[in-house]
From TrEMBL:
It is found in: Bacterial flagellum; Secreted. Pfam families: Flg_bb_rod, Flg_bbr_C, FlgK_D1. Residues 617-659 form the Flagellar basal-body/hook protein C-terminal domain. Keywords: Bacterial flagellum, Cell projection, Cilium, Flagellum, Secreted. Its main location: other. GO terms for molecular function: structural molecule activity. The lineage of its organism: Bacteria, Pseudomonadati, Pseudomonadota, Gammaproteobacteria, Alteromonadales. Coiled coil: none annotated. GO terms for biological process: bacterial-type flagellum assembly. Belongs to the flagella basal body rod proteins family. This is Flagellar hook-associated protein 1. The gene is flgK. It comes from Neiella litorisoli. Residues 94-327 form the Flagellar hook-associated protein FlgK helical domain.
């Protein structure tokens, strides 16, 4: 049987039409995100044996193939996660850096203005108007502390909202991928093995979007379904089943939103920082950067409030009353209790609070408290250092130097003794939040305690370079009075280096039962609620023995000594082992966040380069090139026209043959 020229032309027409259709499909989807270029693969029809030769019988379309590079695609989703992580972290840090720098700059200015007003009170301690200016500046300064804390808290809430939004979108993607798995299997079966390219594109695009949020790996099954694995190996989609992604309130801190995966009824917690992508960046930003900013800001506020409140208590106001707190009490009961957050899974009854005992020992870190084996175990979350605190009702804080003050700067107090049960946990945040809680407590400018209670007057006959200063006045001491006292010092015997001191009343009678050994200086001695700091050696030797330091009640209109002591806080190093001033501590955390921001931006630019490179490689293989497609359109149009001519010629030949009879 001779070759059917008509059918050969029709086959060419159909194949050229399919080429034109596919090329048009490519052109139409040039801007469709995730679309992969398609190509008709042509095949030659079987040859026909005729007259000792094989004659070709035309062409057919074997398949419509996706121009797809699996390795290049895997590189894209790998680098997509890394790029999204670094981009999200860099953007968030830039926002925090701007907040800390701009609003924080206002804070430093307001602190400086507050000290300027304080210096004016030093100059004119009885001027009520100047005192009012100082209170106004205190209000302005506290307002900036509150505002900055609120700004950071707003970012905290925004991050939690974003985590919930991302988790919801991950859930939607999982459902859509599971649905596409089912549709792809069905379409492949109906198509006798032909691949549903557009469905595959949609599935790959969803997985690529998923890679923005988390690390993703995929395994294609023989059936055509795709198993999707996220994070460190958690299955999100298997065959036609999607496992639910959800968020739950954190514990012990309910604001620390967590991500969980529900598989066959089992709720599996996911470590947000280990998921990769945007999720990891959001968790890292919240856990490391925002908490750092809140804790350090709170530490600065605590140091400021404690210093001024303590000094206020050492002085007298214009009404000749002992000074009240200028700012919120750092150990106010409600604040002390909110520093300890109880885990929701606790089964015991113990409740605890944190009392700040020594600001300079605070490190600004958070701690985890665990009750186990009959004892409390405290762990610094940042450093991992552990402290065994003993059992309920007898908590013992670390005290390496034995001075009775916690090395950590705070005491844990179980105000509801218990009993706690093994496995109970608490989150301890000694400094976080105080910058938002701090307020000015004084309402009357006369309440500023600018005057000292007592002054020390060394005798003109003293010859040693010793220095004796008042460091504390406790009017609640049962022996306290406003009467003048003489503190005397004498070396006995001369040249021995042994110094004795005595406390005498106005009649010269000893109030401590006779001389007592001083001990090596520097040291402190106390009587009647008055504590003196003694430095140097007050060697009282004849003919000037003993050396005398008179402590006299000092209230008077022009006394500004206590206000002068307050001005020293502007340059005093009282934070983190007395290594930083209040302003210096804030500037230190601003610098830290600035460095973190710069590092994140460098990582972002690096990851962008690798991601762009991976994307370019992938698109070079599977992307639509309009110039190439336009050329193909002309080529296949010509093929179609030529095939049509074959059909025309075949018809003409047939007509000629029929007309010949």
């Amino acid at each position: 049987m001779p070759v059917d020229m008509y059918n050969l032309g029709v086959g060419g027409l159909m194949t050229a039409q399919q080429q034109l259709t596919t090329t048009s499909h490519n052109i139409a989807n040039v801007d469709t995100e995730g679309y992969t270029r398609q190509q008709v693969i042509q095949g030659t029809q079987g040859a026909l044996w005729e007259g000792g030769n094989y004659y070709g019988t035309g062409v057919y379309s074997q398949e419509v193939r996706r121009i797809y590079d699996q390795f290049a695609y895997n590189e894209v989703i790998y680098h997509q996660s890394r790029f999204s992580y670094s981009e999200t972290l860099a953007n968030r840090l830039q926002g925090l850096d701007d907040t800390m720098s701009k609003v924080g700059g206002n804070m430093l200015d307001s602190v400086a203005e507050f000290y300027d007003a304080l210096n004016s009170v030093v100059d004119q301690p009885t001027d009520v108007g100047i005192r009012q200016v100082m209170l106004d500046k205190a209000e302005a300064m506290v307002s900036v502390f509150n505002s900055l804390n609120s700004s950071i808290e707003s970012q905290y809430e925004a991050v939690n909202t974003d985590i919930q939004t991302v988790a919801s979108r991950m859930n939607e993607i999982a459902d859509q991928v599971a649905t596409l798995n089912r549709e792809i299997v069905t379409a492949s079966g109906n198509g006798n093995g032909a691949t549903p390219n557009d469905l595959l594109d949609r599935r790959d695009q969803l997985i690529n979007e998923l890679a923005e949020y988390t690390n993703v790996s995929t395994v294609e099954q023989a059936s055509g379904t795709m198993t999707v694995i996220i994070g460190n190996g958690q299955t999100l989609v298997a065959d036609n089943t999607a496992f639910g992604v959800d968020t739950i309130a954190g514990s012990p801190d309910v604001r620390d939103i967590e991500i969980v995966l529900t598989q066959s009824g089992n709720v599996v917690p996911l470590s947000g920082e280990n998921l990769g992508g945007q999720v990891a960046a959001l968790f890292e930003y919240r856990e490391q950067e925002l908490k750092l900013a809140l804790n350090e800001l709170g530490l600065s506020a605590i140091a400021l409030a404690d210093a001024f409140n303590s000094q206020q208590a050492q002085g007298l106001d214009l009404n000749e009353m002992y000074g009240n707190n200028m700012f919120t009490d750092i150990n106010q009961t409600s604040l002390a209790q909110q520093r300890v957050r109880t885990d929701t899974d606790n089964t015991g009854a113990a409740q605890l609070q944190v009392n700040i005992t020594e600001v300079s020992n605070l490190d600004g870190d958070d701690y985890e408290l665990l009750f186990e084996g009959g004892a409390y175990l405290l762990t610094n979350i940042e450093s991992g250092t552990k402290y065994n605190l003993g059992g309920p009702g007898a908590i013992t804080m670390p005290d390496a130097d034995g001075d009775g003050v916690s090395d950590l700067g705070f005491d844990l107090v179980d105000f509801v003794v218990g009993p706690p049960l093994d496995g109970d946990k608490w989150l301890v945040t000694p400094t976080r939040g105080f910058a938002g809680d701090m307020q000015v407590e004084l309402s009357d400018p006369k309440q500023i305690a600018a005057s000292s209670v007592f002054e020390v007057y060394p005798s003109d006959l003293n010859v040693s370079p010793a220095n004796v200063t008042i460091v504390d006045v406790d009017p609640t001491d049962p022996l306290f009075s406003n009467n003048d006292l003489d503190f005397t010092f004498i070396e006995n015997p001369a040249g021995s280096g042994t110094i004795f001191y005595d406390v005498l009343d106005s009649t010269g009678a000893s109030l401590i039962g006779g001389p007592a050994a001083l001990g090596p200086t520097p040291t402190q001695i106390s009587y009647g609620g008055i504590t003196l700091d003694v430095t140097g050696n007050p060697i009282g030797q004849a003919p000037n023995a003993p050396e005398v330091y008179s402590v006299k009640y000092a209230f008077g209109p022009g006394n500004n000594s206590n206000a002068v002591a307050m001005t020293a806080f502007q340059t005093a190093k009282m934070i983190k082992g007395d290594s930083l001033t209040i302003q210096g501590a804030y500037q230190s955390v601003v610098t830290q966040i600035g460095v973190h921001t710069e590092t994140a931006e460098i990582l972002h630019l690096t990851n962008k380069t690798t991601f762009d490179s991976a994307t370019s490689t992938y698109l070079a293989a599977g992307g639509v090139n309009l110039d190439e497609e336009a050329s193909n359109l002309l080529k296949f149009q010509q093929s179609y026209q030529a095939a049509a001519r074959i059909v025309t010629v075949a018809k003409e030949i047939t007509d000629t043959l029929l007309n010949s009879f």
